[in-house]
Write a structure and sequence with these properties.
Blueprint (H helix, E strand, L loop, with lengths): L4 E2 L6 H6 L5 E2 L4 E2 L3 E2 L3 E4 L6 H10 L18 H10 L2 H4 L1 E6 L5 E8 L10 E6 L8 H15 L6 E5 L3 H9 L3 E9 L3 E7 L4
Helix pairs in contact: 2-3
Bound molecules: coenzyme A.
Length: about 200
């Protein structure tokens, strides 16, 4: 999906100093993806951060379908999520860890996933943050960085799906330039999934 690569020592101070202030898109072919905004770094997940993913799973809204929530037997466990970070490229070059630069904590993910909705090469924007950091503009800031990354990677259009009840997510999509399409996916149990898209990036 997105260019992969040589490991960037994002935590190295020389590298940090080399980054320009507002936003840097580090998706150079052959190098690992690192995006920087004024408050955030978006970069590959580390195995030790599976606990953050587990917290996201634990906190999910009860209206979200069960396959995206911790099941009655406690799955996925932290160990299972660690395995996923180790083996699934999604966590290194798709859904990036969102790290706050000031506190150096990971607060969720933002990135691109393959989509079945549009044409080939038109991925979906996805984001999810820990509840304790909501309403501080982080999802908007991270999404703008991902949009710039998508543009510079050659994508011309993105998609996003959101449950109709998800006001915060719909607001974020509107703020970063997505518009609602006429297409909806109605689920008899969980409600209506709305489809959003960008104009040409
Ligand atoms: C969606 C999500 C990532 C937003 O993160 P965030 O960092 O709080 O987003 P931002 O602060 O950048 O923007 C949120 C916007 O929604 C608004 N908002 C948040 N909750 C709202 C609510 N219940 N009703 C109305 N507006 C709401 C905020 O006021 C803000 O808009 P504003 O800047 O115009 O005031 C976060 O709520 C989340 O992780 N939700 C669960 C996962 C999810 O829904 N992911 C998306 C799946 S498509």
């Amino acid at each position: 999906m997105i260019g992969r690569t040589k490991r960037t020592p994002w935590h190295d101070s020389a590298f940090t100093r080399a980054m320009v202030a507002a936003m840097t898109v580090g998706a150079v072919p052959g190098s690992e993806v690192v995006l920087e905004t004024s408050r955030l770094l978006l970069r590959p997940w580390r195995v030790a951060e599976a606990v953050v993913q587990h917290e996201l799973w634990t906190e999910r809204d009860p209206r979200v379908p069960p396959h995206r929530r911790i099941d009655a037997d406690g799955h996925p466990t932290v160990a299972e999520l660690e395995g996923s970070i180790r083996t699934n490229q999604l966590w290194s070059s798709g859904l990036l860890a969102v790290e706050r630069k000031a506190s150096r904590d990971v607060i969720g993910y933002c990135g691109l996933v393959d989509s079945e909705r549009g044409s080939a090469g038109e991925p979906e924007l996805a984001f999810e943050l820990l509840r304790r950091v909501w309403r501080q503009g982080y999802a908007t800031e991270a999404s703008l960085a991902v949009l710039e990354w998508a543009r510079s990677s050659g994508y011309e259009r993105l998609w996003a799906t959101v449950w109709d009840w998800n006001t915060a997510s719909r607001r974020v999509l509107a703020k970063v330039g997505f518009t609602e399409t006429e297409r909806k996916e109605v689920d008899a149990v969980y409600g209506t999934n709305l489809l959003f898209t960008t104009r040409r990036l």
